[in-house]
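Appendix B, Record 12. Input sequence as logged:
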Amino acid sequence: MNTFEKRSDTLADFFRYIQGTPNPILWTFVWNQAKVLFLYKSHFFIFLNLRPMTHNSKIASFLKNTLFRILRLAGILAVIYISMVFYLALTERRNAFPRAIYHKEANEAIQNKAKQISCTLEDGTVLNGFSLGNNTDPTLLYYPEADEDVAQFLAQVDSLPSVSVVTFNYRGSAQNKGTPSEKNFANDAAQIAECATQVNGHSPRALVGRGMGAIAAINNRSNNEQIILIDPIFDIADAIHQKYGFLYPKFLIRTNYNVSTDKLKSAQNNITVVSDKKQFESRTHLEYSKLGKANLLIRNGESLQKLLFSALKSNLFQ
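Logged structural output:
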């Protein structure tokens, strides 16, 4: 006889003693139900108490693992982002003032057309350059983009009727010695203007600048020269930020080479902006929007030579 049956007999005797003999059918039903409850009560309470706890534990475990994966991924991305920002910070000078690679084909193309000249800077650095055209004609001084060999511009333009083009490669570019930087770039640009005056014996009548060369052209305007800006940049920090976006926030950029606001305002009536390359079209229009009275020329497949001459003839030959 099992424990439940022993307890059932004891309880049955107790009830008989209190109430007399109970109804056999009712007594059988009640104690059968009691037996079921007694045998399975521990399992019943385990089901009620432990099953919800197990379910909650699974949810908590899932959320914990998911959160851990998200944090781990965020950590990896943060490390990658910080590494990229650190790399861009280390290479900022190189991005702001890149060196132009010597362009062999362009130099060969102008070999029999352009005359080689040089400009010796105050620190003894020698800049190579070219003059193209008759030295008795009005002088146009061209400031190239930082990563542009000036021979490329001359090969593209070929010649400008009744204009003498003078241009020099920057320090450290196209076989020039030295290292370009914010510290020496502005000073070099001013000395280039002086060298251009010495080439033909008279000051340039027009200053043309491409890309960041636009900053040099505007900042070295002194005698009401005509200014032509090709795909211009007015602030190196803005250009770097536009190139890299959130990867290199502007507040981290240390380079502070930009156009003189006063000279930009004074030259507005005599500035022509040329939109040359499609890849810089949005940037060119953005910079043009800062010039209230400047003219805008869009190349649209037309030769750069024709476009420049069209911009020059209105002022240069007056």
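The mean pLDDT is 84.
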